[in-house]
Amino acid sequence: MASCALFATKTPTVGNVKTLKIFVGTWNVGGKCPENGLVLDDFLQVHSPSDIYVLGFQEIVPLNAGNVLVIEDSEPAARWLALINQTLNGPHSTVQSLRKAACPKYSLKAMSKQLRTESKRKLKMCTCVSDLERKNSGDSCFWCQPNNVSQGNLSSEEEEGPDGVICSEVTNYAVHGQKYSLVVSKQMVGIFLSIWVKRDLVQHVSHLRTACISRGILGLGNKGCISVSMLLYQTSFCFICSHLASGEKEGDEIRRNFDVVEILRNTQFPRRCKVPNTCVPERILEHVRIIWLGDLNYRIALSQTEAMRLVKNHEWETLLRKDQLKMEMDAGRVFKGWREGLIKFAPTYKYSCNSDTYLGEANIPPNKRRTPAWCDRILWKGVGIHQLSYERKDSNKYRFSDHRPVYAIFSVEVSVRGTSNSNLIKIEVEELLPSQRSI
């Protein structure tokens, strides 16, 4: 096994590292919009704030023929975005102004525009060269803005980034008490991913790109993933929000494995930078830090009766021995080299709506019952990343879905640019197994 370094021209100075905290949350909301009065403070752990929030949803719209075959409904995503903004930035944030707007429905595009700052300075997409070098060479990349651009030269028009991704703008001052800026929001049918960054960190985010892989029925996107690639300071990150193949029949785990393989093989981020040999990973496994979240749909390989017995006795360790994802990872058939924190919480699926009763123990016909499972998971891969917590959130207000939300908090080390802005920083990628290199 050999290590891989990306486009190294300069190494960071000793001690030139920052430690940041990242909150990662995933929730299959069962096609339901947030209920009136719902607050997410306890789920987002706002009492102990993170520097970055990565929030992924699945089934943000019902996976019916209309949403899959015709056009996806963006109103639920906009409502969730408004709720997240209200939780992170307070009740007097920009969400209130949208509710008073003339349009009768929430719009994801309109909501994303509302959550952009008023300075009209776009998120810098490239930090590969200094402003002086960029001016002299004429080389630039997508939406690259010089640091000394004047306020008067910037457009106030709403714009979208690659693949329709909504990008935020940089602000150097608080707008309506804003603490966090939305840097990206993207929907693909029922999958929705948004990333929020502390206001003073936004200026250090660059090379933001998205990619979508459609899976499921005829590859139309009722399953699949949204991936976001970005640099934070000089460290590359990739966040993957997925919804994998469903089913609890024997052999369905193979379909989920195949979804993972296809996502890793086919996801490629568009190269926007014109500067040659830049430190911009184009594939998932080239990134230094990778976090995968979502409804992975792996089930428990036990009879419904036996699984329910173990759940009622809180015998998580015994139950985990039959968890399909753990068994497939241990056998090296999927997610080779990835890590997951220790699960110390009850299975997150499948509940009867508006109750704490698993569908497996409900008084319904046997063919409609489901074996409890840890479908909702968060995994990671890379150096300099440490998981601080891994929990599911239980509250009466989260009962409207048949899944329970799950979150993880990570401590990550990022390389910060040295005294010279004209050189690239070395990005070291952890050792990759041969099988991963071939994906």
TrEMBL record:
Keyword terms: Hydrolase
TM ranges: none
SUPFAM superfamilies, A to Z: DNase I-like
Domain Inositol polyphosphate-related phosphatase positions: 18-419
GO BP terms in the entry: phosphatidylinositol dephosphorylation
Gene Ontology MF terms: inositol-polyphosphate 5-phosphatase activity; phosphatidylinositol-3,4,5-trisphosphate 5-phosphatase activity; phosphatidylinositol-4,5-bisphosphate 5-phosphatase activity
Xref: InterPro entries: Endo/exonu/phosph_ase_sf, IP5P_plant, IPPc
Keyword Hydrolase included in the entry's annotation: yes
Family under the similarity heading: Belongs to the inositol polyphosphate 5-phosphatase family.
UniProt-recorded name of the protein: Inositol polyphosphate-related phosphatase domain-containing protein
Species, as recorded: Carnegiea gigantea
